[in-house]
Amino acid sequence: MFSIEEVIQAMDASNLSVFEKQILKLRFGIGRPQPLTLKELEETQGVTPWALRQIEAKVIQQLHRSK
């Protein structure tokens, strides 16, 4: 598994939009007490679980490239 610091670095190095980065911060609980669930993100941000998985995949690819 990757650390929060590695996820943040990968997000910074990626070509994610500001919105996508914000969604990931909410999903991973970066800067907040707890991460949001897929359901909570869908309800509050209008992001479908499928779209969230696509955003997560971009960061995971960046993490694998950086190792």
TrEMBL record:
This is RNA polymerase sigma-70 region 4 domain-containing protein. Transmembrane segments: none annotated. InterPro entries: RNA_pol_sigma70, RNA_pol_sigma_r3/r4-like, WH-like_DNA-bd_sf. GO terms for biological process: DNA-templated transcription initiation. It comes from Heliomicrobium gestii. It comes from the Bacteria. One of its GO terms (molecular function) is DNA-binding transcription factor activity.
